[in-house]
Each structure stands twice: as C-alpha cells, then as structure tokens.
Amino acid sequence: MGPLHFGAGFFLIEVLKLKNMSECPLISKSFVTLNQVFATDPSFFTGTLQANGYFHLPFVYGGYNLKTLAKNINNQLPSFLVILFACCTITVSADDHRRSDTTPLSTGKQAIAFLEKQADLRPSNYWPNVNPVFFLQNLRKNIDEPLSIHEGKSTNFCAYAALSYIPLHDDPLGFVKFLVKIYKEGKAIYGKEYFEPSKEVKLAAGTLTFKGELDVRPADQLWFMLLADHFKGYLNFFDKQYNPGDENRLWASVNFAKYNRMIRRLFNYEVSAVGSDLFKPGIRDMYEYLSEKLATGTVSLFVNNVNLYKRNQTRLKFGVPTHFVILLAIEEVDNKIAITYWDYGGRTRLLLTERFLKKTLFGISHATKKTANAQ
C-alpha cells in the first residue's frame, strides 16, 4: 500500500490506500507478491506496524536476511530486485486509512446529536456511583456552556479543568464520545493514550462531596479522576495510587511539563511553552508576547494563585506556581495590562501592572491546531 524506500539498512513501507496488487501492474504480472513474501519467510519482516501507519523492517544489503529471502522465492533475486526498484508502489495487507496528523475538530451540534442518541444509556458496571441520567446531563451542560466546567473547591483538579477548555471548544464530539465509551466499557482510547482506570478511581467517581459545583457533576468527576489516575509527573511520585481524599493531595497535582504533555497526547495540538515550575519566563514585553500568542492559539497561564488575587500589587511574597488558567483576552489600559481569564467555571478580569504579572506568572503554554499532514 505504499512506496518502498531504501536506506541505511532499513525497509520503510508506508501504508497508503491501494486495494490490491493489481494496482501495481509490474508486480501483479510477476511471480511474487508481498503476501507471498510474508508467507515464505515471516522472520524477514520482524518490524511492527506503528501507530503512524509505518512498517519499520530490518534489511541488510547482501546480508543473511536478503539471501534467505532470495532463496525462499525460488532464487530469483535479480527479478525480485528489479521489481522492487521498478515499481513505485507495493501492497501491504494493513489499515486502509492513512493516519492524518491533523487536530480532530467537530462542533457542538454534532456532540449534542450524539448525546441525544444515548437517551437509553444504562447504568455502568464499571462506574457504579455515576448515574447515567446525571452523567448525560453533565455532558450536555459542558457542550451548551463550555465555560461552566468547574474543578471544585479545595481540589487539585485545576489543570484538568483548564485543558478541558480545548476539546469543549474545538472537538466536543470527540470529548463526549470518549467519555460515553469509557462509561460503557471501562476502557477507551483518547488521542494517543489508552485508558483503563484503576478500580479505586472507578468506585470513587461520583462520590466526591463538599466540592461545591463539582458535587453535582459526575461526568466531570469521572473525567478529572481519569486524567489524574493516568498521567503522572514528578509531583505524583510518592502518591501514585488513589485513596479517598487524594483529589486534594499530590495524587492529583500537575506540573508544567505534564500539563503540556497531556494536551499533546490527548488532542494532537502543537504546544510551545516558556517557563517552568520554578523559574519564570524571561519575556521582556509581556503584553506584546501574550497578545501575539493569543491571536494564533489557546493560551494557558501557570500562575501563583495566592499572588494573583492579592489586592496590594506592590507587596508580593515568594511563591511557586499553583494554578492553571485560560487566557481569554488581554489589553493595555492606562499603562497597565488588563487580562480576562477563565477558571472555576467563569470569567475574571484583572488590571495588573506588568511587574506584578511577571512576578505571578511562571509558565505560558501556547497550543495551536495541526492543519497539515505531517507524514
């Protein structure tokens, strides 16, 4: 199904959309097909089909493997090589669809249409404390009001809520399809990640209380706990297994690199980031930089939450980043910077000095859609 490339001791067979060998006339009239090669000497092809649609196969020029293959196809090595070099395409019995390295996109209308077909959703054997009616109601509200998603009070779910902004605005259908599938089957794939959550998480989702708005959002509880259970960073090193109350502890914590990795792996975005968990980004003109990034993608800010809400912007204590927010708008007002951002289920507008913003801001993440095939 693809062009054959030689080089540096490797075959590289790229999966394309040819249906059968007859689409390559030279091979179709010849004594050999790739299927025969597989059947004759499977050990020659010891590589595997990768997620990006490529086979990587060892190939030693003039070495044992090639000689063995030649012997096993009736010692017709010259003809075989002529065929390989002369024919631009050969067929592989594999996936018919070439994987496109583009960001998946959909609309709220598509997501709602999908949810309406789930009206008879039955209670899940995997998530016994998540009521299917409330589960679907929660998903519907997320689609109708994407800014309403709430990490809850006194939890460490802010990063998971912040990154949810992306699929709820750009691919809500993919978001709800994944959650419905994992609700029904207890496991599912999202982007490049395979999820099969722990028993403890499955039992806990839907039971969190005293978390404010999150108490009545079982789908969000499931989603946040699923992400915390699956993705790990250095902050989670000593608390990898969920125990009751861990939504408030290091088990659910997210460092800057982990946040960016989740966006890349789940939603297939290009993510560029400046800053870190300890050192602030060295940006000279913060207003210009943020304005430029906001015009071309989704911008997340990693901030010290305590300092962000201080009224006295001249007296700042030493701090570390503790909170993720989504930047929605930025403007200059009387030599200050007005930022509008999303967190805790709503919008907030603050007027800050540039010095204060730089002191509070530890990381800037810029996510842009992939629109071209990278293969």
What does this 3D model show about the protein?
- The chain is an alpha+beta fold and about 375 residues long.
- The chain folds into 3 domains: about 5-85, no CATH class; about 110-260, no CATH class; about 265-370, Cathepsin B, Chain A.
- The protein is built from 14 helices and 11 strands.
- The chain has helices spanning about 25-30, 35-40, 65-70, 75-85, 110-115, 130-145, 160-170, 170-185, 200-205, 220-230, 255-265, 285-295, 305-310, 355-360; strands spanning about 5, 10-15, 55-60, 190, 195, 270-275, 300-305, 325-335, 335-345, 345-350, 360-370.
- Strands 6-11-7-8-9-10 form a 6-stranded antiparallel β-sheet.
- Helix 5 (about 110-115) runs parallel beside helix 8, helix 7 crosses helix 8 and helix 7 packs parallel to helix 11.
- The longest helix has 14 residues, at about 170-185.
- The two termini are about 15 Å apart.
Major sheet: order of its strands?
A: 6-11-7-8-9-10
First-last Cα distance: 15 Å
Number of domains: 3
Indicate the percent of residues in helices: 25-40%
Could you state the order of secondary-structure elements as H and E? EEHHEHHHHHHEEHHHEHEHEEEHE
Mean pLDDT level: 79
Oligomer: single chain
Cα-atom Rg, whole angstroms?
A: 26 Å
Largest sheet: 6 strands, antiparallel
Number of strands: 11
Which range does the strand content fall in? 15-25%
Count of helices?
Answer: 14
Overall 3D form = globular
Detail the poorly predicted runs.
1-98
Class per helix and strand makeup:
alpha+beta
